[in-house]
Amino acid sequence: MEIHRHKGLVYYSFEILSPYPHLKHGVFTRKAPAKLGGDLTFAFRPNLPVARVLTSLSLAQKALGLGPPAMVKQTHGTAIYLHDHNAPAYQPQSPDELLVGYDALVSEPKSSLLIKLADCQGILLFHPPSKVLALVH
């Protein structure tokens, strides 16, 4: 893994994916700039201002040079969300906008995806010929 730093954020990328420069990816730590209290978060939680999550998302997007990601409320299930980049945008801006019940996201090319991990192992799958990406929680 390669370590990256961007305006106070720390994240990692997988060297094995470097032959695919169009596959921008990052595994972010919780370390964040002081304006976020030193804590990066992508999870909408009770008693946490929505603006803090949106700021964290924006900082990560800028670090990777990506658009807003599709993300879901993960539930330790088996359902898969297929993100179609030609469909109307699905980039939730509040907890009420999150699709519920998915633990894997699959994209077509040109999509941004995000999963959250704590004590679970995440899996990134990429199919180079089709440029399809899957993130599994």
Write up this protein.
With 137 residues, this protein is an alpha/beta fold. It starts with a strand and ends with a strand. It has a four-stranded mixed sheet with strand order 5-7-9-8, with no helix packed on it. The protein is 11% helix and 27% strand.
Helix content: 10-25%
Quick one: overall form? globular
Q: What is the average per-residue confidence, as pLDDT, rounded to a whole number? A: 87
Question: What's the order of the H and E elements?
Answer: EEEHEEEEEE
Let me know the number of strands.
9
Major sheet description:
4 strands, mixed
Beta content comes to 25-35%
Number of helices: 1
Measured between the Cα atoms of the first and last residue, the distance is 19 Å
Strand order across the largest sheet: 5-7-9-8
Low-confidence spans: pLDDT under 50, at least 5 residues?
none
Rg value: 14 Å
Estimated structural class: alpha/beta
